[in-house]
Specification:
The protein is of the alpha/beta class and about 190 residues long. The protein has a single domain, classed as Maf protein (Alpha-Beta Complex), CATH 3.90.950. Helix content is about 35%, strand content about 25%. The protein is built from seven helices and seven strands. Strands 1, 2, 3, 4, 5, 6 and 7 form a seven-stranded mixed beta sheet that branches. Helix 3 crosses helix 4. The protein is globular and about 50 Å long. The model has no long low-confidence stretch (mean pLDDT about 95).
Amino acid sequence: MHNLPTIYLASKSPRRKQLLEASAIPFKLLELDIEETYPVDLTIEEVPEFLALKKARAALEIKTDGIILAADSIVVMDGQIFEKPTSRAHAIDIIHALAGNTHVVITGVCLMSTGRTVHFSDHSEVHLASMSSEEIEWYVDTYKPFDKAGAYGIQDWIGHCKVDRIVGSYNNIMGLPTHRVYEELANF
């Protein structure tokens, strides 16, 4: 891993930064403001990779001397994407919808250099236990999950007290499937 060119993490997510650090993958942070929009004709499966590719392309315009690592996560249930909430009320509505149900977290990842592009997605199933309105409002007011797809963080109170079953990678739910990233970087 240490003989690779510089890896640039194109992300504002403190969780992705934390996951790479914990995985001993050396990187430099490259914070970009990319509008997370996508064509309406994409399938749900295509959305996270499309957004990761969009971020990587923008980052490659700034840094051409290494490997760009970009990612995007979405929360999906019953064919609907639950994106980052736009308000307190929206966050409460999202968690009400997810509580007592199983949803899927899909993280799209893109590794890009001037000569090569690799992209993939990882899926994790999460079952969120039922929650009272009081618990949901307390959670939103305490943790302010406005920068998180699905309006919650697996690493905070909901993950500790209300997630009762996970199928797949915990790190993927947190924002980066580090097991796949490590393998793909090793093969890059």
